[in-house]
Write a structure and sequence with these properties.
With 472 residues, the protein is mostly helical. It is built from 19 helices and no strands. The longest helix is centred in the last third of the chain and has 33 residues. The chain starts with a helix and ends with a helix.
């Protein structure tokens, strides 16, 4: 199948599965914010945030490694899966032994059992799902995503409305979804057939660890970038402000969601096409051009309607989120471009470069949070300093990766278009956030500027894709 057609097909399948499921969660935001107070919502987000910090450590990063190695046609799939499961068992065993340390944190003590369950079953589900995706069972991967979300939503309705479990019910719903989805994947993909103790190979385990271990701090760095602001907002501004700030993340996640759908398909295609240097370079250049335009135009549309979306999707007590949402939307757009460039490190197995660039962003984010959160709070803008710190850190990593990534795969970076688009987003974000004079005029001019920069490249990419599909 033509490489572009394959990429398009996988993106559509994953898009249907992922977007349909996430849209349901998105539309239920008014219910969640109505049933949970701002303080409860903040606690639930901190619990899940803490669990997400522990997930890559507990699985020794193997959910990333199993995808990269199982994608390789030359690799023995049974050996890779069996060795990955063995490493996962070692990691989870160590995590269970050390889990009592969570009791040392006062605000987590009552929820330690919940965090342990969340981490344990999230890793089991992830390893099974990533293997299924790596062996090109894209439809099954999409179906399990829908199933997981439906189960989570149904459990949310049951635990929050019927049993009134509050924070525990909100988080426990995710755990139940992961348990059932793991069983579903094992049965439908017949994963027991690709596992055997005799296939566990020390050499494969060593290769997997060498690739996966640097991705643990990489993942942690991104989580720190995303979560440090919430911890520090809670510290400097209180749990209620953090609850509103956390809710402000929900609409920017639409950008992250759409880009992640594409990334799942793109990672498979990028690895598959990595052997031919010239074709790989051309493929990257063409896809990156279209991706920039799609992300930037999409972020512009969400920025224009961020106020309306806030009123529609969040309850009245969370309407203060509109102060942070534009900045976080721009951050999400830059994060999408950063994630695209990370594919270079995945393909070339340069996981240490992925870590070092991510670490630069995380360190910068923490430093700026400590400085800007109390500063903006004193100025009357509450947690806006945290949002600007997140935006700045993603911008820094984007610049670093635009310099570094082409060393490993040569492709056109479109520096002027990326820079111009980012500046337009910043201008639009300022207009929306502060309701500047002549807002409608400025929004119109900036939107026209964004379309002028990215409209033709997006149309060109779409036309080329349709042509290639026709020829495929």
């Amino acid at each position: 199948m033509n490489r572009y057609r394959k990429l398009f097909s996988n993106t559509v399948i994953l898009g249907i599965g992922t977007f349909a499921s996430k849209l349901l969660v998105f539309l239920l935001m008014p219910l969640y914010t109505a049933l949970l107070s701002t303080a409860e919502y903040s606690t639930a987000e901190l619990i899940m945030g803490t669990a997400n910090l522990l997930i890559p450590i507990a699985c020794v990063g193997i959910s990333n490694g199993i995808f990269r190695f199982a994608c390789d046609k030359a690799q023995d799939k049974k050996k890779i899966f069996s060795s990955s499961v063995a490493l996962l068992c070692c990691g989870l065993g160590g995590f269970l032994l050390l889990s009592p340390l969570l009791l040392l944190a006062d605000y987590l003590r009552a929820y330690t059992w919940l965090i342990v369950a969340y981490v344990f079953f999230a890793n089991l589900q992830s390893v099974c799902a990533q293997y299924v995706r790596a062996v090109d069972k894209t439809k099954l991967f999409a179906i399990q995503g829908i199933l997981n979300t439906l189960l989570t939503v149904l459990c949310n309705l049951l635990f929050l409305i019927v049993f009134d479990l509050g924070v525990v019910g909100y988080v426990l719903s995710v755990v139940v979804g992961n348990i059932v989805t793991t069983v579903f994947l094992i049965l439908t993909a017949k994963l027991w057939q690709v596992f055997s103790v005799s296939s566990i190979d020390k050499g494969s385990m060593g290769e997997l660890l060498r690739f996966s271990l640097p991705l643990i701090p990489t993942t942690l760095c991104w989580l720190i970038t995303d979560l440090s602001d919430r911890y520090l907002v809670t510290y400097f501004c209180g749990a209620e402000v953090n609850g509103i700030y956390s809710a402000a993340y929900k609409i920017p996640t639409v950008v992250t969601l759409l880009s992640s759908i594409f990334m799942q398909a793109w990672q498979f295609s990028a690895v598959a096409e990595a052997s031919d240097e010239e074709e790989c370079s051309r493929f990257y250049t063409n896809v990156f051009s279209g991706f920039i335009s799609f992300v930037m135009i999409g972020a512009t549309g969400l920025l224009l309607f961020s106020g309306l979306l806030t009123r529609l999707l969040l309850s009245t007590s969370f309407h203060g989120a509109v102060l942070y949402m534009p900045t976080l939307l721009i951050s999400a757009a830059l994060e999408a471009l950063v994630s695209f460039l990370a594919t270079v490190y995945l393909v070339r197995k340069k996981s240490m470069h992925s870590f070092l660039t991510a670490m630069a962003g995380a360190v910068l984010n923490i430093l700026l949070n400590v400085w800007w959160i109390p500063l903006f709070d004193r100025l009357g803008y509450a947690a806006l300093g945290a949002a600007i710190a997140t935006l700045t850190s993603y911008a820094a990593v984007l610049v670093i990766r635009l310099i570094d990534a082409p060393r490993w795969i040569t492709f056109r970076r479109y520096t002027l278009r990326v820079t111009g688009s980012a500046l337009i987003l910043l201008g639009l974000g300022a207009v929306v956030t502060f309701s500047l004079p002549y807002s409608i005029l400025w929004m119109t001019l900036l939107t026209v500027g964004m379309l002028a920069l990215n409209g033709y490249p997006l149309w060109k990419s779409a036309a080329a894709l349709l042509k290639k599909r026709g020829n495929g």
